[in-house]
Amino acid sequence: MINMVMLVDDSGIDNFVNKTMIKQNLTDNIVIKDTVKDALNYLRMESDKIQNIPDLIFLDINLPALSGFDFLKEYENLSESIKNKSKIIVLSSSDKPEDIEQMMSNKYVKDYLIKPMSPEAIENIKHYFL
Amino acid sequence: MQSNLCLFLAKSVTRMVYFKVIHMNVLKILMLEDEVDDAGLIERMLQRSGIEFISKLVDSREEFIEALESFNPQIILSDHSLPQFNSIEGLKIIQEKKLNIPFILVTGAVSEEFAVNCLRDGADDYILKGNLARLPSAILNALKRRNTENDRHKAEESLFNQNQELIKINKELDKFVYSASHDLRAPLKSVLGLVMLAQYDVKINKYESLGDYFNMMEESIYKLDNTIKDIINYSRNNRTEVSSEKVILKHIINESIDNFRYLEDSASIEKSITVHETKPLFSDSTRLKILFNNIISNAIKYRKTGAREQSYIAITAEVLDEKAIIHIEDNGIGINEKVIQKIFDMFYRGTEMSQGSGLGLYIVKETLEKLKGTIEVSSELNKKTIFKIEIPNNKESNIEVK
Q1: In principle, which of B117, B193, B248, B319 could form an S-S bond with A17, CB 3.0–4.6 Å?
Q2: Minimum-distance CB partner of A64 among B193, B220, B351
Q3: Same domain, B250 and B393
């Protein structure tokens, strides 16, 4: 079951679009972080309350200051309970082969979606995880 | 061992030609020859042909090497075999030292095979002592050929350098195209997402959110348009010549501030502009506008929101004879000292608040490079940021006025 989703993206509009689609197709329980720093802080703060740890993290690549790649480096150091629960899906507007390859070779990244998110993409995710 | 240095000048030349000859055409000939009589014959032959020259005669390895450095010959005439030295070794020394000096063998009778070998080893020509009449033209031909070769080498070298430069520019262009296309596509993808939401809502007869969708689409489209404007500014700065016209700095600054009056919260920011403009400033008004637009828009965008203190932008400028000095200060969020070195980099976004392309300050830096100006930044996080700009006053310059 997917009970909770986290969005890590600096674009307010993309967060709005993604939140709306996830609400329509997946779950109402969505936490939005517009910087990598805030996202990591949230995960560290909530690491004891497993119900507050998202089942799915949609991660953008191109964020100011720390990027999606930086997020993954730090994610590695989080507790096993978080890493066991959260599945990471990259959601980026980049279709650069190097980006896709580098992201998909990370063991915590389960899929790579190119923006915009679509109801079909969410259906695929549901099938994959259920 | 004998070495003699003598200057021969053809007697028939006029005084005018003599000067020209002295400065440009006196040929320095190094003769590797042990028979002084033979050397004399060669010199007389050259004298008769009208070639102006200075010659130095050597007959040993040590003298030969020494003369290459001190005499700096333009051509070498070498006998084949000397008591302690020979032409093949002489040729080798020239090649080892990578000297580009023509080398002509002047010998007694040799076999055809020997002559061919010498030419193969790098000699320019060979002349039999019995047929010295051919020597003057052989010298001129060898010099001409070397000159052509030199020109070709220089052209090849310059072509190679140009090629390297182009490879570098192409790499930068690739990087630029990738980053720029990402920045151009991201807002389009946002619009596409919004269109999908709108289509879904319309399908289920739900209309109340459409207004919000349109507002967000508008925002994305403006963002895209701003990125395109940045790219055009960048490219224009690279391609257009710097102009120099009389500009009124105060007007340019006011115009720039006025550009942003519709920007969110711009009106609530206190702005003070003090310009001392007793001397006229000659500079490139288009580039100055680009500078001020980028720095002032940053000061507005990165103001402190929700703070109790009044946000301000303070601009002071002074025009001197040789330059204009401008300070732009704000009490916004400031710049983290860890990233302050990178803020002028292409596509670098220094703060998590950035919604821009990461090109603004890069364009500022590039524009100032064109204007031959400088920029310095100092900042205290959450306190203030000051940009200090110096722009040369081109009053006396001969930059073409548009």
Answers
A1: B193
A2: B351
A3: yes
Task: Tell me the CA distances in angstroms from B308 to A30, B296, B311, B384, one per residue in order.
Answer: 32, 21, 9, 15
Q: What tens digit of pLDDT does each residue of B133-181 get?
A: 999 999 999 999 988 988 999 999 999 999 998 998 888 788 788 778 8
Assess A93–B contact: CB distance below 8 Å, yes or no. yes
Whether B228 is in a domain gets the answer no
H/E element, B62: helix B61-70
Q: What are the tokens at B370?
A: 């064109």
B360-370: pLDDT as tens digits? 999 999 999 99
Residues B134 and B273 in one domain: no
CATH number of the domain bearing residue B123: 3.40.50.2300
The rounded distance, in Å, linking the Cα atoms of A65 and A44 is 19
Of B189, B351, B353, the CB nearest to A116: B189
Q: Report how far residue B241's alpha carbon sits from residue B325's, in angstroms, rounded to the nearest whole number.
A: 23
- Give yes or no: residues B249 and B137 share one domain: no
Model confidence over A80-92: pLDDT tens digits? 999 999 999 999 9
- Sign (positive or negative) of CA dihedral B58, B60, B64, B67: negative
- The pTM of this model reads 0.63
Range 5-44 of A in CB contact (< 8 A) with B? 10-11, 13-14, 16-18, 20-21, 24, 34-35, 37
Domains and CATH numbers, chain A: 5-56+65-113 (3.40.50.2300)
CATH of the domain at B293: 3.30.565.10
Domain, as residue range, for B132: 5-155
Gyration radius (Cα) of chain A, Å: 13
Residue B118: inside a domain: yes
Helix residue ranges per DSSP H, B121-239: 135-203, 210-239
pLDDT at B397: 53
Do residue B149 and residue B272 come from a single domain? no
Instruction: Return the percentage of chain A with pLDDT > 70, whole number.
Output: 99
Q: What residue of A is the nearest CA neighbor of B354?
A: A64
Q: CA angle B197-B198-B201, nearest 5°?
A: 85
Q: Which residues in chain B have their CB less than 8 angstroms from residue A17's CB?
A: 190, 193-194, 196-197
